[in-house]
Specification:
alpha+beta; Peroxisomal Thiolase, Chain A, domain 1; 8 strands; globular
Length: 197
């Protein structure tokens, strides 16, 4: 059985790594908080500023979880309930305004939730499996055996899993990294505790 080597939560202007607060932002607004965290992590990736909020959240959580990882075969399995609704609503406002109709490609490109996986893959040069699920809740009973299969079949050396919430400024990310060695058993009970923190 594989292990969970670390887990991360981003919510309420804070970052928790294995239940310890490692960063606390000054702003309650997600965009400002994301910029603070980005600068705190000393990332140099100008494309970050063009991303929508969902991608920024996934990017930041992944950046923390994948620190010092150089493997190209890390699989990504993300899930959320809202899809890309946060960007969809912005795009709808742009195309609904008949007096100022301008459907911006910069907004439209983010009207698919799996774009967040693409952004993380590009940043970390990942060339493995990836999947973005839409569901009312995190599908631990499906994702756990899928992660085991990816690692046991050598399709991935590790799997980064995450639950994301981003809608109208309300945000949360709960991520965990699955690999052969770690601090917790990779089982449904531990996954559910991490996701529901």
């Amino acid at each position: 059985m594989q292990k969970i080597s670390q887990y991360i939560a981003i919510r309420d202007n804070r970052v928790l790594w294995n239940d310890k607060v490692v960063f606390e932002g000054q702003s309650s607004d997600f965009k400002d908080f994301a910029k603070e965290l980005y600068q705190h992590l000393e990332i140099n990736y100008p494309k970050f500023y063009k991303m929508d909020n969902l991608c920024k959240l996934a990017f930041l959580a992944s950046e923390i979880a994948l620190t010092n990882n150089e493997e190209e075969d890390i699989a990504l399995v993300f899930c959320n309930k809202e899809g890309s609704l946060d960007s969809d609503l912005q795009h709808q406002k742009l195309i609904s305004n008949l007096d100022n109709f301008y459907p911006s490609p910069a907004v439209f490109v983010y009207t698919l939730p799996n774009i967040s996986i693409g952004e993380v893959s590009i940043r970390h040069q990942l060339k493995s499996e990836s999947m973005f699920l839409l569901a009312d809740r995190y599908q631990s009973e499906y994702i756990a055996p899928y992660c085991e299969l990816l690692i046991n079949s050598s399709k991935a050396s590790k799997v980064l899993c995450g639950w994301l919430k981003m809608i109208n400024g309300d945000y949360q990310a709960n991520f965990y990294l699955v690999e052969p060695e770690g601090i917790l058993e990779h089982n449904i009970e531990n996954i559910d505790q991490i996701i529901n923190k």
